[in-house]
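Budget justification note: compute hours in this period were largely spent on complex prediction jobs such as the one shown. Inputs:
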Amino acid sequence: MAALIQISDVSRLYRRGADEVHALEHVSLEIESGVFAALMGPSGSGKSTLLNLLAGLDRPSAGSVTVAGTRLSELSDDELAAFRARHIGFVFQFFNLIPVLSARANVELPLLLTHLKKAERRQRALTALGIVGLGERAEHKPSELSGGEQQRVAIARAIVSDPEIVVADEPTGDLDAKNAVEILKLLRELASGFAKTIVMVTHDPRAEPYVDVIHHLDKGVLVDGESEKSARRGQAR
Amino acid sequence: MTKYLPFVWKNLTRNKLRSLLTCAAVALAIALVCLLMTMPAGLRAIVDTFANNTRISVHNEAGLVYPLPYAYIQKIRALPGVTGAVSWTWFGGVFEIEKGVTFPNFAVEPEHIPVVFDDYEIDPKQLEDFRRYRDGAIVGRATLERNHWKIGDLVTLRGTVFPIDLSFRIVGEIPNQRAPHFWMNREYVDQALRAIGSSLDFLGIVWVRVDDPQRVEPLMREIDAMFANSEAETASETEQAYFKNFFSFLQGLVVVILIVTGLVTLCIVFIAANTASMAVRERVGEIAVLRALGFGKRLVFGMLLAEGMLLSAIGGAGGALLALVLTDLIRSQAALAPQMGPLGNFIVTPTIFVQTLFLALFIGMLSGLVPSFGAARRSVSEALREVV
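Corresponding output:
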């Protein structure tokens, strides 16, 4: 069976004035369904660029990205947006919740793009908040929540529409050690208990025990990957 | 699409003071536009109030300042369909010349006033006195009140057109708060002029009363044809047209005010656009997150545009309501206090109300167009890189 995420010989070139910056060069990678994968590497190694490409937020300069059987480069911007809404949930370093909305309303946002009725949207948002342990804090505004709680709300928002894939860009980067571990545990649980495929960009070495596979990038090149998979998977569970 | 409205509304209320100030700016501009839009219909109503549809004015084709031979009036009175004709000749008298107290004063034939100006509702007894007393004068209520005169008072007007000063006895009034006229007996002026070796053998305007509104147009053509190719050709016009000429300078003023209002509206567009730009710039990250979550470009564009239009519509409704309340208040006051006079004719009609609401929506749309378009088009990954 084909991998859920297939990245084939992908390069990404940026232009900064007269200069060309090779953010990614000939990267090939496959991530199977239900796997919790980490992308690690120093700053500027191309981790976030790779994450953006496989999440359909950016387009490669060369190569192809296929997610859930769909070649993303063949989609228009609108189709890509619809694809993201259906297949991908996002978690960001700085939570990026809408400050004027309650936790429930934030979680409900992706459901506005569905045909669900208001009551059902509300119910699903509360369920997602329950999964991340914030059912009691549903009507609180982001400013009334701690950093860890805000990131949990962001995770609830990422899973509320039941996507196959959750991409997380430095989800523990703005959290203290305790909250960081809690978030890693939660993501692990989503992968194991809810069969989500999770791709996480991180610098955090504490993440290693929780992930199935780590892909290292350096200067836009994938330097290792599959070799770590079996070793980590055992520890993570 | 209504499911997005609560989200749009929440975004509007995130900076309440800014939204309130923008709303107030739009409201004031719309109130101003609303009031100005009442002016053309208001002026028409004033003209209709003043003017009678069976009264026409005949004056020298060269202009109102040029006289007509007095003999014309007899020929006009003889025409079929003419029930009466009275001449107005500018006397140009000034009361208290050092204070510059002046008003329109005309020499008229008292015996023809009741027929030609029967709608002025002048007391028949006063009209009778006007005919009886050679030095009698009938004065409009506006001039009476301004000079604190009353019936029975004696006043002297110093001639500025003719070298004579004449004393008058006020025998009646035109019971209309807006009437400034001072009518005097033509024969009295003529006799005074004859005493100094001159005479009043010309007239300024002939007011003609017609028996049937349908005959007005043909009669005007007939009068002008009768005096065609003479030394003083005539130009006839309805009373409404006559007043419109007087009001034409106001129409020009309205055009100027409309231009200024247009510029004010444009300023409001820029102010609202600035607000929209600031709101969008502050939310680059949020907008990028929405795009990442699957909100398409068009949807994001539509929601941002809806914010501006909703804010503008609220301001517009407030402004239109303000104008409505203001004009209603003035109208009710005008009914109680007639000195407020023509102001009562300015009415915010349902059409004006709806038109200005659409203008407010247009302001909102125009101001939100560029910032919303820019935000919706922006690359998600680039925007996220700035904030994440």
